[in-house]
């Protein structure tokens, strides 16, 4: 029992530290987070307490008001923390990959299946909606990279729908905070076995990182790889 109590206390302490850290990170981007949370809690509690006096049960309504105030504060805090996190990630290289990594069950994601020298990148996700190619980078450069990858997907898995999304804030682009929602809204047209088959076929191709040739041992200073990425023989 003592060990279980110690483990539970450690878990609770870890959660409190995580909440505190999340609050500090959110406050850097959202200076009013403290006032907003306080206002939500006080207003929620006040409304239920007032209702309690009106119906003649202020104590019961007050207890309910405390619980609901805590719940409302937690919901608002979660949403503002998520918004602040996306705001800090917006425009950062690899931000879309971080979102895809947490998209949820039913999706298989592969980061950086295509990339150019300017570090514009295309990620791939496979699910019941088919294949989704997610591009991030300069819109003028990454469109050609995205088109080339989409053409390759249509050639290899012609029977699977291929969607393409460009992450950004411009016209026709998907904001980072809406990427997950946009993907989950895509129509589901594949069965579980079709998704597995598609993943197997794409996995056989490998990805950019696994196909990239790297020299064995340390690379001499000043040495550059020849064009095409092949090792000198």
UniProtKB/TrEMBL annotation:
Residues 209-233 are annotated as: Disordered. Keywords: Membrane, Transmembrane, Transmembrane helix. Pfam families: DUF4191. InterPro entries: DUF4191. The chain crosses the membrane at residues 33-53, 59-78. This is DUF4191 domain-containing protein. It comes from Streptomyces galilaeus.
